[in-house]
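Hello,

Our lab assistant flagged a job as stuck in the queue for most of the afternoon. It eventually completed. Since we weren't sure the result was trustworthy after the delay, we are filing this so someone can double-check. Below is the sequence as submitted and the structure that was eventually returned. Let us know if re-running is recommended.
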Amino acid sequence: MNNEDIIIRLEHVSKSFGDKKVLDDINLYVKKGEFITFLGPSGCGKTTLLRLIAGFLAADSGVITMDGKDLNGVPPHQRELNTVFQRYALFPHLDVYDNIAFGLKLKKVPEDEIDRKVSKVLKLVSMNGYEDRDVNSLSGGQQQRIAIARAIVNQPKVLLLDEPLAALDLKMRKDMQIELKEMHKQLGITFIYVTHDQEEALTLSDTIVVFNEGRIQQIGTPTDIYNEPHNEFVADFIGESNILNGTMLEDRKVSFIGHDFDCVDEGFGENVPVDVVIRPEDIYIMNNTEAAQFTGKVKSCIFKGVHYEMFVDTDEGYEIMIQDYNAFEPGSVVGMLIKPQDIQVMKKSCLMNSFEGTMTSDESVSMLGGEYDCPKTEGIFKGDRVRIDVAFDRIDLLDNDQDAPVTGNVAFILYKGNHYHLTVITDSGEHVLVDTNDVWDKNDLVGVKILPEDVHITKIGS
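-- returned structure --
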């Protein structure tokens, strides 16, 4: 990438609030004229990053540059960018014209030039003729247009938009998405957009940056993000997915849900555990079971407006989601087929839990902020630093009123066809991955129980 094509660059940017690290070593560049979207769940750090770029917050470490110039210490009003907020922040005592002209008047721009610029942006946001209207008399969509007009009238190099459509109803939001895309095309400036709405990000963006827990999970075009997710979080967060445990048997052949399938993926090795992603619209469902790769029974069928959403229990004991234009009644036996190009294989981020700890006796170890019993291991003694390996399915989660050495909160839940794969963040801030058939809700307080026979100890440095 030519440096002349880059308008904003972030290098090793981190930010904490108290003990909580909100952004962790962010590296990213934004191209001139690009529509880039920061996408992720609430609390993932995307708005904080936007506020760092705007100058409303200062990074704890790292560098943010614009056109090659370090923005450290540059106040917001001296940066060549403007921000549109979710809460429109219009001046209620000023009419539409004066709201838009406010920044120009502060800069002492000549009146005739202000008139020309205000008229131009009002036309751009389809609000010409509203100059004398009281902003409080406008609808939510109209107020948002005025907020955008006020931001772009100063001709910033970059427009920052912090969930600007979140307060609008569904139809108005869809209409404004089309208008924003058209505005971006006409203005030719860089848009940096923050949203938690996956469909909005896919509709608007040239590039999507997916965040979770203060880290970038994937950067790519909407097509790349949807069709080629890098990990299970992205696959689950962007659209609907069937995410299943599988085994890569060899190049272009993968096994999952009890069957072997041809696929297009290569380079994983042989007999390697993998995650398999199948979008529900990519599973063909039919009454003819003889032509199918596998069969099952329809569990439910719900009309979703443009398609039917069905859950099918396969003969091998897996539940999968299918979206199809045709309805298959609950209880009916169906056949299913998946084409090779519709199977997405991903490397597993890890195969088991690995923690670091300290032996507190020959048969107990301190880890995750608590103490657990463990088997006596030859050559390992009290005080030794050790690595503790525990399989996902060998950890039990207890109700918060039960006794356990460590407690934490359920942070992420992923259904994998015949079990749940959970991420629990302990009180000490460490992540524990758990496979379970029990149903938990996000943010549930749980105890983390590990039996001694399921703890595998290795001395660090041995």
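-- support follow-up --
The delay was a queue issue, not a problem with the job. The result is valid. Helices lie at 46-54, 96-106, 111-124, 140-152, 170-187, 198-204, 222-227, 232-237. The chain has a mean pLDDT of 91.
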